Amino acid sequence: MHQINQVYINGQFVTPYGEELFDLFNPATAQRIGQVRLADERDASDAISAAKAAFPAFSRTTKAKRVDHLRRMHAAIESIEAELTAAIIEEYGAPVSRASWMAKHAASVLGDAAAVLENYDFTRQIGIARVTMQPLGVAGLITPWNSNAGFICGKLAAALAAGCTAVIKPSEMSAIQTSIVTRALHEAGLPPGVFNIVTGRGETVGAVLSTHPDIAKVSFTGSTSVGKQILRAGAETLKRITLELGGKSPVLILDDADLKHAIPMALQAGFMNSGQACIAGTRILVPDHRLAEVEALLVEEVAKVHAGDPNDPNTSVGPMVSLKQWQRVQRYIQVGMEEGAHLLAGGPGLPEGVNAGWFVRPTVFSRVTNQMTIAREEIFGPVLSIITYTSEAEALAIANDTPYGLQAYILSSNPQRAHVLAAQVDAGRVLINTLAHEPRAPFGGFKQSGIGREYGTFGLEAFLEPKSVLS
């Protein structure tokens, strides 16, 4: 039984003033596996004070020194990869292949940030002005449960590369992962107060980070509704804010696509991270005249998708993170049936052979209209919708007919045609015939999928303010 009773403030592990105990569960069994003592508003304020005190000295460190910090943090996270992978499986329920990738990603983002920093010029001459990129101040970093370690390390890496100090509020549902990551980052030996990690609720710790006058920057990944609350709260002190929010990503299968390759890739895009991914390709757009062919292939391919024990290497869809999330996904499946969508595969209830845990049957609806609830709202589970179109223009209109714009996918045998279409899709990232990730490229959303960008130089500059000196 895991018992986590400390937070990390000013370079030390301390008992929080907050007294609330939050239960932790293994979503694959629905059994309680531990408790975490949550930080409160006083703990958040203490962490901000520590970061504020550390900022003047840290903001003046050399680029080489910060690169060294990031390299040591990268090595520290790399050293706990096996332990972190096991925790991701136990606490989050990610299938083992996904959990291993997530643990590696938590380390790699630190190395990526070091590489970006090494090649970044903080000063440039523009006409008679010398422009210097200056660190903003104390950053408040709020991370979600669907890739907890990766978001902690990724946001922290960008903040520290810029010369900012940080207070991190990870999801309370990911406390085991957070404790492992915190211990490793502590071993990297950064100066006290440069980063602080306080696990607490959004309405307590998160609210302090969003409103405190000593927080200059907030970076949040999570739901669009919470992102809007943070934006409103930060407006009072004009905080710089980066929001990476929800998505309803289209997968455009063009009429020239080889369906035997396109359909498996579309399912991977939709079911990635057990469907608990803001970038999941949940709307599959297919040519009307190929619908029967698409449906037949999808039924065949979904039958190969194994939902079950995350420790089984054959599993590709694990459980939902919580009972609440499971109930949410089940409700959407029911709504899809009630609104007249054709249930092609899956459906309500537990997968066959599964008797415990918060598992969802990998579900695909066909003959969905883009106005149906399951096509409009982010479900955050393994539930996909097939929508037909009669022309490329209509496909583009459907793809863009959403309040979101985080990511999109185009599957075609004609790369040139796909690139022309990609230029017209309202999304921060468009993937053509691939599911790859490019850590040096900006990531973020159009419309209600967010504000600002992360990764690469764009992510670094989100923590910097330009200052022009004319002489």
Structural class call reads: alpha/beta
The assigned CATH architecture of the largest domain is 3-Layer(aba) Sandwich
Query: Helical element count?
Result: 15
Summed up, the domain count is: 2
CATH topology of the largest domain, anyone? Aldehyde Dehydrogenase, Chain A, domain 1
Low-confidence stretches: none
Strand content bin: 15-25%
Average predicted local confidence, pLDDT: 98
Distance from first to last alpha carbon = 64 Å
Helical residue percent? Answer: 40-55%
Q: Rough shape?
A: globular
| Rounded Rg | 22 Å
In the sheet with the most strands, the strands line up as: 15-16-17-14-13-18-19
Say which CATH homologous superfamily of the largest domain is assigned.
Answer: Aldehyde Dehydrogenase, Chain A, domain 1
Biggest sheet character: 7 strands, mixed
InterPro entries: Ald_DH/histidinol_DH (IPR016161), Ald_DH_C (IPR016163), Ald_DH_CS_CYS (IPR016160), Ald_DH_CS_GLU (IPR029510), Ald_DH_N (IPR016162), Aldehyde_DH_dom (IPR015590)
Organism: Pseudomonas fluorescens
GO molecular function: aldehyde dehydrogenase (NAD+) activity
EC number: 1.2.1.3
Outline the structure in words:
- It catalyses: an aldehyde + NAD(+) + H2O = a carboxylate + NADH + 2 H(+).
- It is an enzyme of class 1 (oxidoreductase).
- Pfam families: Aldedh.
- The protein is α/β, with parallel strands linked by helices.
- It has two domains: 266 residues, Aldehyde Dehydrogenase, Chain A, domain 1, CATH 3.40.605; 183 residues, Aldehyde Dehydrogenase, Chain A, domain 2, CATH 3.40.309.10.
- It has a seven-stranded mixed beta sheet with strand order 15-16-17-14-13-18-19, sandwiched between helices. It has a six-stranded mixed beta sheet with strand order 10-9-8-11-12-20, sandwiched between helices. It has a three-stranded mixed beta sheet with strand order 1-5-4, with helices on one face.
- Strand 4 and strand 5 form a beta hairpin.
- The longest helix is centred in the first third of the chain and has 23 residues.
- The termini are far apart.
- The relative contact order is 0.14.
- The mean pLDDT is 98.
